[in-house]
Design brief:
2 domains, Neuraminidase, aryl sulfotransferase activity, 495 residues, mainly beta, 6% helix, Arylsulfotransferase N-terminal domain-containing protein, single chain, 5-stranded antiparallel beta sheet, Arylsulfotransferase_bact, elongated, 36 strands, Arylsulfate_ST
């Protein structure tokens, strides 16, 4: 019996040695390059003698944090992306050939180059709150609307870890798509340059209220093109609507771009209406400026449209003369939990719910709306509505009446038409922004808030206390939270 066991053991060892010998591969070359000469991204080209899958394990020397890339498909030539690297930082790494018996290369090293001077963020100092735990594990996506335009990711230490640049046009706003890419609204700088510059709190309090808040078509915060960008910074496609359409209503979109599961894009546009309105006691014919929803595909083809004029009674509107060129100034679009639309109508200080199929106006929420609510929680000239993971409606209250801005969220009971205030995170007085801005509930319970006119991107608690702040040199229209899970198909932290 003992002899049989020994013989079986010997046979197993021989078989294992044979398979190990048969499976053995040779790592012929490893080449590191930095696409677009960025400090935050290395591409590793790996050449094998025989076809096999590979992956890379790499470690940041300073912190000891280790990561593993995706496993590539079996081949002899592999291209592995190392993303979100820190600038001017040393890393060690190994290439692993993922055979039955894994083959590891010797430990290799590389150091990323220093950050480009134009991407260095100088906010991180004692003059601003900088609790690095406040943001959690994710990053913040910001957009730059001047030339050249760009999107950039900022981490909890204020460092830029990813960037995409476009030379001929600015980037107004962006969103994360269901397929884990970035969808960018592109706009010519001259279209709305007044919104690009920061102001002191005193200027916001005084100068912003000297000019009309509703500036008509020059204040649409819009764009003339869209682009989808991969997480490696590759432009997947770009559509220039102003070059594609002769009809002016389809040439410009504004404020929001959302991609649904069918990869259709939902955005806002400015349909006009020719109608008779009372002016100084007389009925005159004029072209009225309004807003609507436009659905397009990734080729730029218009699939559906909805206009606010379809649900608005011009004859009973006491303000139609005053706001005839920008009656609604709708500045935010999102999907409700049931798939219908929620629209921000800041001139009415309301959020509207629109049936996505019929176009019917289902209800109005806010001042003079359909919900019973705490009148002290009224909001004004609000931006960026969205539904939180708890099903609450969150928005950014610009606070034109009391000159205090901040995040608010509400639990809406659509059966009984009541609204409960869940969060009222008013920012400090010096962070008042009369226009733009947004708020987002982070996974850790804190809030990401943008005071656009003061240039401040902040993480606050639910009472509005500022825990973390990045002051930009321009007025960021909005800041988007990007969870680390977005990058799972490229790499994961392993320790």
């Amino acid at each position: 019996m003992k002899r049989l066991i020994v013989m079986i053991g010997v046979i197993v060892c021989v078989v294992l040695v044979f398979f190990c010998w048969m499976d053995k591969n040779t790592l012929k070359s490893i080449t590191l390059t930095s696409p677009n000469n960025t400090a935050m991204y290395n591409k590793v080209d790996i050449l094998l003698a025989k076809s096999a899958p590979v992956y890379i394990e790499y470690t940041e020397k300073k912190t000891g944090k280790s990561y593993r890339t995706r496993t590539s498909h079996a081949d002899t030539l592999h291209h592995i992306d190392l993303l979100l690297l820190k600038a001017n930082t040393e890393y060690t790494y190994r290439v692993i050939i993922d055979n039955l018996f894994k083959q590891k290369s010797k430990e290799l090293t590389f150091k990323t180059r220093e950050q480009s001077s134009w991407l260095v963020n100088h906010w991180f100092n004692e003059q601003h709150p900088h609790d690095t735990t406040a943001l959690g594990d994710g990053m913040i996506l910001v957009c730059f609307g001047r030339l050249p335009g760009y999107m950039a990711l900022i981490d909890n230490e204020g460092e830029v870890r990813w960037v995409w640049q476009v030379d001929d046009i600015g980037v107004r706003v962006a969103s994360i798509t269901p397929r884990g890419t970035f969808l960018a609204m592109l706009r010519p700088f001259v279209k709305d340059f007044i919104d690009d510059y920061t102001m002191t709190p005193e200027q916001v309090q005084k100068d912003e209220h000297k000019k009309p808040m509703r500036r008509g078509s020059i204040g649409f915060a819009g764009g003339t093109a869209l682009a989808e960008v991969s997480l490696t910074g590759e432009t997947m496609w770009r559509v220039d609507l102003n070059k594609m359409y002769e009809e002016k209503d389809y040439q410009v979109i504004h404020h929001d771009i959302l991609m649904d599961e069918n990869h259709h894009i939902h955005t806002l546009y400015r349909p006009k209406k020719v109608g008779e309105i009372p002016v100084n006691g007389k009925m005159v014919t004029d072209t009225l400026g309004g807003d609507g929803i436009m659905v397009i595909d990734t080729l730029g083809n218009v699939l559906e449209t909805w206009s606010a004029w379809d649900v608005w009674n011009v004859a009973n509107d006491p303000y139609i003369d005053e706001y005839r060129y920008d009656r609604f100034h709708m500045n935010g679009l999102c999907f409700d939990e049931d798939g219908n639309y929620l629209l921000s109508n800041p001139i009415e200080d309301q959020i509207w719910k629109i049936d996505r199929q019929s176009g019917e106006l289902l209800w109005k929420f806010g001042r003079n709306g359909d919900f019973e609510m705490d009148t002290t929680a009224y909001f004004s000239f609000q931006h960026s509505p969205y539904i939180t993971e708890y099903g609450d409606l969150m928005l950014f209250d610009n606070g034109l009446y009391n000159k205090r801005s901040g995040a608010k969220s509400f639990k809406l009971d659509e059966k009984n038409m009541t609204a409960e205030t869940v969060i009222n995170a008013v920012l400090p007085p010096d962070k008042y922004t009369s226009r733009m801005g947004n708020a987002y509930l982070l996974p850790n319970g804190n809030l990401l808030q943008t005071s656009s006119k003061t240039g401040s991107i902040m993480v606050t608690d639910k009472q509005g206390k500022v825990l973390w702040e990045s002051v930009m040199y321009y007025a960021p229209y909005r800041a988007i939270y990007v969870p680390m899970e977005t990058w799972d198909k490229y790499f994961k932290e392993i320790k």
